[in-house]
Specification:
By secondary structure, the chain is an alpha/beta fold. The chain is built from nine helices and ten strands. It folds into two domains: about 140 residues, HUPs (Rossmann fold), CATH 3.40.50; about 120 residues, HUPs (Rossmann fold).
C-alpha cells in the first residue's frame, strides 16, 4: 500500500494536484494524507511570550483548517469514490516545509504531490517558493503538477540524466512503481559537450539498463545543447507525460534549478515533474 502526502491550501491549484494524484494512482491501493498547515494571523510579542491558548487564536484557526479539510475530503470522495483509496486529514500548527518533512519522516510517505503555482501567479515563475523549498529540503519523491494541467496517463516518461549517479533502488523504484501502473516507455536523455562517457558513467548507464530491462526504454544522446533546451526540444518531438529527475548535488539538476534564479529556468514546464532525492529519508521497518 502506498502512502501519499497531499499538501493543500484549498486553492484551485492544490485541488488540481490532488485530482492528478487520485487519477494517477486510481488502480493502486493507497492512503492519501491531506495536509493543511496554519499559523494564527496575529503574531505579536505577547503571543510569542505567553501561551497561545490564552488568546484562543490557534484553536479558532485550527477549527477553520479542519472544517476545510473535511470539506475537501468530502469533495474528493464525491468526485472519485475509489474503494482502493483511504483519505486521512491532518491540520498542523506549523509552517509548510517543516511539517512536510516531519510527516514524511514519521509516516513513511512514498510520494508528495503538490501544485507548482507561486503566490504571485507570474507566468515567468516556473515553481512557487514552497515547491522549490520542498525540492531542496524534503527527502521524498515529489510530484509537482503544473497549474491547470489536465491529467494524462504517463505513457511516456522523460528522464534526463548525466550518468554521474550510482543508481540505487531508492532512485529508480519511484519510477518503476508508476511505470507498472501504465503501459509506459521511458526515454533516458543524456546531454554532453563532446566528451565521451567516463568508465564510471558507462557503469552507471549499464546499471540503468538492468533496472529497466523488463520495461520499454530508449537511450538518447544529445551533444552541445543546454539541458533546458534539450528537454524543451525533446518535448516538441515527443508526447511526454512526465518529466523525472534525480536531485543530486553537484549534478546538472542543481545547476538547472538552484543556481542564481532558484525558481526560474529557461523553459516552461507544462507537464508533471517527479523529483527524486539522491539520498532519501530512510524508512523504518517493522521487525519481528
Amino acid at each position: 500500500m502506498k502512502k501519499i502526502l497531499l499538501p493543500t491550501d484549498f486553492s484551485r491549484n492544490s485541488w488540481n494536484a490532488i485530482t492528478y494524484a487520485l487519477k494517477l494512482f486510481k488502480n493502486d491501493t493507497c492512503t492519501f494524507v491531506l495536509l493543511n498547515t496554519y499559523t494564527p494571523i496575529i503574531y505579536h510579542v505577547e503571543y510569542v511570550l505567553v501561551n497561545p491558548a490564552q488568546y484562543g487564536l490557534a484553536d479558532a484557526v485550527r477549527e477553520t483548517s479542519l472544517k476545510q479539510l473535511k470539506d475537501f475530503k468530502a469533495k474528493m470522495i464525491k468526485a472519485f469514490n475509489n474503494p482502493k483509496h483511504t483519505i486521512e486529514i491532518k491540520a498542523a500548527f506549523n509552517t509548510l516545509i517543516p511539517e512536510i518533512k516531519e510527516v514524511v519522516e514519521n509516516e513513511n510517505i512514498d510520494y508528495v504531490v503538490m501544485g507548482t503555482k507561486g503566490a504571485t501567479g507570474a507566468k515567468e515563475i516556473l515553481f512557487g517558493s514552497n515547491t522549490v523549498h520542498t525540492f531542496k529540503n524534503v527527502k521524498c519523491p515529489i510530484i509537482a503538477v503544473p497549474y491547470g494541467f489536465v491529467f494524462e496517463p504517463p505513457h511516456e516518461i522523460l528522464f534526463p540524466t548525466d550518468y554521474d549517479i550510482d543508481y540505487k533502488d531508492h532512485h529508480i523504484k519511484p519510477i518503476l512503481n508508476i511505470m507498472s501502473l501504465y503501459n509506459t516507455r521511458i526515454d533516458i536523455l543524456h546531454v554532453s559537450y563532446g566528451l565521451d562517457l567516463s568508465l564510471a558513467q558507462k557503469a552507471n548507464k549499464k546499471n540503468l539498463e538492468k533496472y529497466f530491462y523488463k520495461k520499454a526504454y530508449l537511450f538518447h544522446d544529445l551533444r552541445n545543447q543546454e539541458v533546458s533546451d534539450a528537454i524543451s526540444n525533446f518535448q516538441l518531438k515527443h508526447r511526454v507525460n512526465l518529466l523525472v529527475m534525480i536531485n543530486n548535488k553537484h549534478s546538472f539538476f542543481e545547476n538547472l534549478f538552484f543556481k542564481n534564479t532558484i525558481n526560474q529556468i529557461g523553459f516552461h514546464l507544462n507537464i508533471p515533474f517527479l523529483v527524486i532525492p539522491a539520498n532519501p529519508f530512510k524508512k523504518t521497518t517493522n521487525e519481528t
